[in-house]
Each structure stands twice: as structure tokens, then as C-alpha cells.
């Protein structure tokens, strides 16, 4: 058998009963030694790789659908389809299949599918040994026909037999003729039977029957039959809707009659599936899988035919951007493009890629830039939907277009600024369109989807562009609604307490919340660019004005923005917050909230708890120094006491380090004099202290000898450096152990040194050995009065 090559697409049916495109190639039928039989081979047209190798089994049921499709199953859950570019190619391969199986090519199905076990087939052998015998197509036999159609639905084999019988006798058209008679006679009983019959025939799930039922001369009668549901008191008026209400609008005349017919057919079949037929039960959910496939392949064909007609699409975009085009006409054009994009979602990724590239080449983005700025709400809404398709498909394509726009034009006409302004000016009280646009903006500025770009500099270039040309447009409402009153005395003192949020209505609050959500995203993902912008614009101060809003959700958005900044643990941000005293509005909000246990209270406390747990020293010092008096009364959480504890620990450490590096002989003398002065005031405890001093002298001497033996090498070098830093006039310093020498030179009292030194060792396990010894030396004079009082 000679090879026959035809261009095809290979499809497989996935678990969701949707067709997946496996690629485009050329099909041939040839003998394959390994499979020992004639097989269908499809080789990819791109690289010649093997897309499909399927032996034509004598027992496999092949179906021919819509003149250009061949569908079959190779396993229980593995369905395949070949979609041919030309009918001639499909006919030729179909003849080869029928030749191998010994079947008549005039049939549209080569086998009766065997879906049941041998036992079930044996039980039904009497019923299935011949075609189902249909009653004569007469008014008096409608009830019998309806019962027959309903009874076979539970048996796959009998469904096949009934489908063949309906096809072979031209029975469908006879039934539809009876429908017209019953409707003329207003025979409700007959019409109810016809409803059951037509519904049952649809549930046979056979493409060959669909071809007949959905043809131009039959489909409206099929819809008519489905109007007379016995469960309804009055029939539905589906035909009236399809013929009078639903208008087919040709924005540009479609000259291809086959394309026009395909569009009409697809709309009506989709209407039957979505509107007329009841939602199938669990037991019926697979009955309409072929109907879904029928619609799917129709949509693929429509998109392909339109995409190939460059003259048609060129005219669409020319009229869309023409200033002379009437508003009503432009609205129809935008709606057409939107519907066109919606149809494209049925395409597989590689086909969708080609589809959107075609639109990009035709100028979809410049056209959107024009129509999104128009006053017509319907046009803007449809344009937003089209823009969302483009962004979801390829953010990089949109970014590339935006950066190529001429920079000499006004910033307002840049596409992203047009999108931002539409978001800001959304008239919907619930801001539905603004929420959608905010999501699209976030996708465009998300560095995560820039990483895989072939253009390695895309991230840097686009973010620089965005912050230079677009960020001021995004933040304009925020800055306008948090404007400072320059004449306010309080504001001159750095307070943000009295700044008004004006207007503080719900819609404005929602818009500001959306903007803050986007800015918070920038803080998390843009680091350098957003940091520079915040510092230059003093943006955090303006955002924190919103803590005064009567809308708690907006105050929480402002707090979340600050929380993200602090969460970065960036000292540049921390210094900015400290310098601007930017905790004040947060603490004011906490105090104004009072004892109410709500989300605002919890969120503010979580902010301070984070600072405490992460031990952000600069912020802890700022908070305790400036606000602890206002916060110390809050005792239902230990957060603020914990901050105070962290603050004091750090203060002690800093004091110790300062003393260690700056101590000289004069300071030692002053400490000694201070000690003796204290000792004169504390004679009562002298006897007890004397005993403790004796005990301590023994234990401390042994401890220091062991310590010197273990650390002589490493500490010696360090201590040499420290000894050099102390003036040579001090006789207490030696090159080997400055700390020990200092301790020996001063006549240390027993009691305070023992207790203070031991506490110091426990409190600061992370200090080095020499630091521990220094603590003994420097803490004793300071803590002596507290212990002896």
C-alpha cells in the first residue's frame, strides 16, 4: 500500500473530556513490521518526529465526523482524533481504514463498540443480533418510539444499533416532519413525546446524528421539539429568541458562506447545550461528550478561517481605530474582537500563540490604547476583557509594546497610564472593573514572569520605565487624598495625627485600598525602585495618614504597607521611619482604638511583636525612647514589656562595650573612690560581706587560674590590642591579661562582685570569656548601692 500524506492535527481526549492538541503533521498509512500490521503514522511537520503510531486494529471502532475528522478509542480512556485540513485527505485515509477492516467506506462508523463484558454481551445477544427495529414514523406510534429511545440509553450496544437505524432510514427528518404536523394541530401529547424522542437522540451521543440534526434545514425544528418539555406548563420560546432577539451582527461583511453557516450553527448548538438541555445527572454526564467535541471543533475551525482571512481582520482593525467610525459601529467591532478572543481559548497553546501574534501584528495594542480611553462604558469594558486576554497570554508582549511607545508623547496616552486611569475612574460603586485592572497591572509589574524572558534586561528596563512614567499616575489619588495642611502647627512638628482623609467616602476608600495593595506588592518585589520612590516622595508618611480613616479596612491596608516595609528588615527603611517619627500615627491608632479587641488592635500588636521577636534594635530603641510611657499601661499582652526588656538588655551591652574600650586609670580611680564612699555608708553589712569575700576569693582565684590556662593563647593577642588602647600611665594593665590585672588593682568588694558577675554570666552567654570578666569589673560599682540598700 502506497504512502498517502495529508496535513492533520492530532488530538487526544483528556480527563476533563477536553481535546488536547498534540501537534500538526502529515499522516500516512503503511505496514509497520514491529506492529505487524497496517498502521497510521503522523510525523510532525516541524521536525519530522513521530506524533502518532497507531495500528489499524480489525476490532477498533473508527468514526468519521464532519467530513474532516476521524475519531477512535485505543484503550478504555484513551480517545484519539485526526482533524484533516482537506476533506479529500480524510476520505482517503478513511478508505484505507475501511479496506483494512473490510468495511464499506460509505458508513461513518466501522465497528459496533464493545463496552460491556462477555457475559453482558451474551445476555443481550438476542437483542443485538440485528438492527433495532423502529416503529413506522406515524403520529399514533410516537409514544412507542419515545419508549424505545428512552429504553436503549442504558445499553451502549443498543444505543449504537438505534443510531444506525435512525441514520439508515432517514428517520430524523421524518420525525421533524411529524413535529410540524403536531404543532399545526396543537397536539400537546404528541409534542411531549417528540421532546422525549429528540432529547433521547441527542443523548445517543453520535456525531453522525448531530450532522443531520444541526443542519440548516433541521436545527430550528430540533429546537422547536425541545420547547415542549412535559414538566413545563407553557412551552419556552427558544425559536423566537434565536430568530428575533438574537441578531447576527456582521461588523465587516463575511463573504465566505461556509464560515457564516458555521458561525450560525455553533451559536445555536451552544444555545441548545447551555440553555435548552437540562443539566445532565451523574449518570448522564458522558452522554453529551460528543456534543461538546462538536462545538469545540467548530470553534477551532471558525478561529482558523477568520485568522487566515487577513483582509477581513485588517479591515476590522482599520475601522476600529478610524476616528470617523461611528460609536455604535465601534462598539460592535470591539465586541467582535472580544468574542474572537474568547473563541481562541478553545485553541491549544501553540495555536493560541499564533493567534495572538497575528492580532499583535495587526495592531491590537495600539487599537486598545485608543478604545480604552473612550467615554463609552461598554466599549471600555469590552476593551478591558480583550486586554486581560493579552496580558494573561503574554505579559512580555504587552511590556515590549509599552516600552516602544514614543517617549516624546504625553505620559497620559501611554497604554499603562490609560489602564491606570480607567482603574482610578471606575464608576462602578463596587469597583469591579478596577479590581480586574489592578490584577492585570500586578501581572505586568511582577518580576516573576520576567525571569524566563529571552531579554535578560527586561526586568530592569521595564521597572525603570514604569517608575519614571507611570508610578506618579498610580499614586496620584493617594497623594491627593492625604495632602498635608502646610499651615498646621502640629504638622510642622512632624505630627500626622490631624491630617484629614478627604473625601473619606466608601468608594474612595476602596480605590485607595486597591492602590495600597499594589504598592505593597511593589515593596515585596521591587526593592530598589520602590525604596527610592518611597524615600523621595515621603510616601509612608502620606500612607499613614489613612490610619485616621473611618474605614477600618483602609487603615489596615495602610498598616499592612508599613508592616511589609518593616518586614524587609532594611536599615535604610528603619532610619527613614525613625527620622520621620512614623510610628506616631500607628500608636495613636492603637490608643484611639481603646480596649476594643478587633482586627486593627491585633494587627498593630503583631507589628510590634515582629519587631520584638526579630530584635530590630534601632526600631526598638526608637519606640521605647519615644512611646513607652504611652504603651506601658497595655498589659493584656507582654509585647511592650518585652520591647522594654530588649531595649534594656541592648543598653547594658552597649554600656559594657563602651566601658571596655574607653576605660582608663582615672576612671578606675573614680570607681574605687565611689566604692569606698559607698562602703562607709554600709557598715551594718560588713561582717556578712567579709565572709562572702573570703569564700569568693578562693573560688574566684581558682576560676581565673583555670581560665587563664585555657585561653592564654587566643586572648593574649586580643588583650595586647586592648592594652595598647589604654594610656601607659595605668599600672593596672599588663600585656597578658588586662581584665584580670584591672580586677586585681582595685580592691573589689566581695558581695556585689559575686552576685553581679554570676548574673552577668547567665544573662549574656553569647559574650566571649574576656567580656564576662569585664562585666565583673564594671558592674560591681554600679550595682553595689542596689544590693546594700
UniProtKB/TrEMBL annotation:
Keywords: Coiled coil
Signal peptide: none
InterPro entries (UniProt xref): ARM-like (IPR011989), ARM-type_fold (IPR016024), EVH1_PP4R3 (IPR055236), P4R3-like_central_dom (IPR006887), PH-like_dom_sf (IPR011993), PP4R3-like (IPR051137)
Domain PP4R3 EVH1-like positions: 5-101
Domain Serine/threonine-protein phosphatase 4 regulatory subunit 3-like central: 144-649
GO cellular component terms, semicolon-separated: nucleoplasm; protein phosphatase 4 complex
Segments of this protein annotated with the region Disordered: 673-694, 714-744, 761-789
GO molecular function: protein phosphatase activator activity
Entry coiled-coil feature ranges: 644-671
UniProt feature, compositional bias: Acidic residues: 673-686, 764-778
Biased composition (Low complexity): 714-725
Biased composition (Polar residues): 733-744
Gene Ontology terms: biological process: DNA damage response
Pfam families: EVH1_PP4R3, PP4R3
Function per UniProt: Regulatory subunit of serine/threonine-protein phosphatase 4.
Family: Belongs to the SMEK family.
UniProt name for this protein: Serine/threonine-protein phosphatase 4 regulatory subunit 3
Organism field: Stegastes partitus
Source taxonomy: Eukaryota, Metazoa, Chordata, Craniata, Vertebrata
Amino acid at each position: 500500500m502506497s504512502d498517502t500524506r495529508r496535513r492533520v492535527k492530532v488530538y487526544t481526549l483528556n480527563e476533563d473530556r477536553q481535546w488536547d492538541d498534540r501537534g500538526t503533521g502529515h499522516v500516512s498509512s503503511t505496514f509497520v513490521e514491529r506492529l505487524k500490521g497496517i498502521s497510521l503514522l503522523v510525523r510532525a511537520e516541524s521536525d519530522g518526529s513521530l506524533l502518532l503510531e497507531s495500528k489499524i486494529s480489525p476490532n477498533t471502532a473508527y468514526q468519521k465526523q464532519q467530513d474532516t475528522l476521524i475519531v477512535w478509542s485505543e484503550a478504555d480512556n484513551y480517545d484519539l482524533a485526526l482533524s484533516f485540513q482537506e476533506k479529500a485527505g480524510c476520505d482517503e485515509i478513511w478508505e484505507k481504514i475501511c479496506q483494512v477492516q473490510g468495511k464499506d467506506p460509505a458508513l461513518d462508523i466501522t465497528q459496533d463498540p464493545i463496552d460491556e463484558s462477555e457475559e453482558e454481551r451474551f445476555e443481550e445477544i438476542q437483542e443485538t443480533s440485528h438492527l433495532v427495529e423502529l416503529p413506522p414514523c406515524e403520529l399514533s406510534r410516537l409514544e412507542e418510539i419515545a419508549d424505545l429511545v428512552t429504553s436503549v440509553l442504558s445499553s451502549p450496544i443498543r444505543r449504537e444499533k438505534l443510531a444506525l437505524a435512525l441514520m439508515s432510514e432517514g428517520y430524523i427528518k421524518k420525525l421533524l416532519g411529524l413535529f410540524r404536523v403536531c404543532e399545526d394541530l396543537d397536539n400537546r401529547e404528541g409534542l411531549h413525546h417528540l421532546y422525549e424522542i429528540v432529547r433521547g437522540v441527542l443523548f445517543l451521543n453520535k456525531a453522525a446524528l448531530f450532522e443531520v440534526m444541526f443542519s440548516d434545514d433541521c436545527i430550528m425544528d430540533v429546537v422547536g421539539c425541545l420547547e415542549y418539555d412535559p414538566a413545563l406548563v407553557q412551552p419556552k420560546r427558544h425559536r423566537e429568541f434565536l430568530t428575533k432577539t438574537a441578531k447576527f451582527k456582521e461588523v465587516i461583511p463575511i463573504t465566505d458562506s461556509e464560515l457564516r453557516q458555521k458561525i450560525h450553527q455553533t451559536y445555536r448548538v451552544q444555545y441548545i447545550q447551555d440553555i435548552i438541555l437540562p443539566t445532565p445527572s451523574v449518570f448522564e454526564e458522558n452522554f453529551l461528550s460528543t456534543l461538546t467535541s462538536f462545538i469545540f471543533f467548530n470553534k477551532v475551525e471558525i478561529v482558523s478561517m477568520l485568522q487566515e482571512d487577513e483582509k477581513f481582520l485588517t479591515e476590522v482593525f482599520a475601522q476600529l481605530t478610524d476616528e470617523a467610525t461611528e460609536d455604535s459601529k465601534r462598539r460592535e467591532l470591539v465586541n467582535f474582537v472580544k468574542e474572537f478572543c474568547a473563541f481562541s481559548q478553545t485553541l491549544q497553546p501553540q495555536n493560541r500563540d499564533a493567534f495572538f501574534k497575528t492580532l499583535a501584528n495587526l495592531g491590537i495594542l495600539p487599537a486598545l490604547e485608543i478604545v480604552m480611553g473612550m467615554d463609552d462604558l461598554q466599549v471600555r469594558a469590552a476593551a478591558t476583557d480583550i486586554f486581560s486576554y493579552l496580558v494573561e497570554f503574554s505579559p512580555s508582549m504587552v511590556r515590549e509594546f509599552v516600552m516602544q511607545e514614543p517617549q516624546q508623547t504625553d505620559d497620559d496616552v501611554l497604554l499603562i497610564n490609560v489602564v491606570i486611569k480607567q482603574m482610578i475612574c471606575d464608576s462602578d460603586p463596587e469597583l469591579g472593573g478596577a479590581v480586574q485592572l489592578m490584577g492585570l497591572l500586578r501581572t505586568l509589574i511582577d518580576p516573576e514572569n520576567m525571569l524566563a524572558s529571552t531579554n535578560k534586561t527586561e526586568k530592569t528596563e521595564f521597572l525603570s520605565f514604569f517608575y519614571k512614567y507611570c508610578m506618579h499616575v498610580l499614586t496620584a489619588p493617594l497623594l491627593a487624598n492625604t495632602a498635608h495642611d502646610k499651615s498646621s502647627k502640629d504638622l510642622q512638628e512632624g505630627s500626622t495625627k490631624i491630617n484629614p482623609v478627604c473625601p473619606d467616602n466608601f468608594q474612595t476608600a476602596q480605590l485607595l485600598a486597591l492602590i495600597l495593595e499594589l504598592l505593597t506588592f511593589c515593596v515585596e518585589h521591587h526593592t530598589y525602585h520602590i525604596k527610592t520612590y518611597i524615600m523621595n516622595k515621603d510616601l509612608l508618611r502620606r500612607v499613614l495618614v489613612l490610619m485616621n480613616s473611618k474605614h477600618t479596612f483602609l487603615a489596615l491596608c495602610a498598616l499592612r504597607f508599613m508592616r511589609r516595609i518593616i518586614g524587609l528588615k532594611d536599615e535604610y527603611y528603619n532610619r527613614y521611619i525613625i527620622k520621620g517619627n512614623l510610628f506616631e500615627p500607628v500608636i495613636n491608632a492603637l490608643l484611639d482604638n481603646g480596649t476594643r479587641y478587633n482586627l486593627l488592635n491585633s494587627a498593630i500588636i503583631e507589628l510590634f511583636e515582629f519587631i520584638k521577636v526579630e530584635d530590630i534594635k534601632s526600631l526598638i530603641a526608637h519606640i521605647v525612647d519615644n512611646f513607652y510611657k504611652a504603651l506601658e499601661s497595655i498589659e493584656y499582652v507582654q509585647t511592650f514589656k518585652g520591647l522594654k526588656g530588649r531595649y534594656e538588655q541592648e543598653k547594658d551591652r552597649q554600656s559594657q562595650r563602651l566601658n571596655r574600650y574607653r576605660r582608663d586609670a582615672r576612671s578606675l580611680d573614680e570607681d574605687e573612690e565611689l566604692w569606698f564612699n559607698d562602703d562607709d555608708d554600709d557598715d551594718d553589712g560588713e561582717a556578712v560581706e567579709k565572709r562572702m569575700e573570703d569564700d569568693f576569693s578562693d573560688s574566684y582565684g581558682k576560676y581565673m587560674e583555670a581560665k587563664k590556662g585555657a585561653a592564654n593563647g587566643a586572648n593574649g593577642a586580643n588583650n595586647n590590642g586592648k592594652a595598647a588602647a589604654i594610656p601607659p600611665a595605668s599600672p593596672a594593665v599588663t600585656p597578658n591579661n588586662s581584665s584580670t590585672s584591672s580586677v586585681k588593682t582595685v580592691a573589689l568588694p566581695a558581695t556585689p562582685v559575686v552576685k553581679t558577675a554570676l548574673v552577668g554570666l547567665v544573662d549574656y552567654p553569647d559574650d566571649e570569656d574576656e567580656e564576662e570578666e569585664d562585666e565583673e569589673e564594671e558592674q560591681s560599682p554600679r550595682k553595689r548601692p542596689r544590693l546594700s540598700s
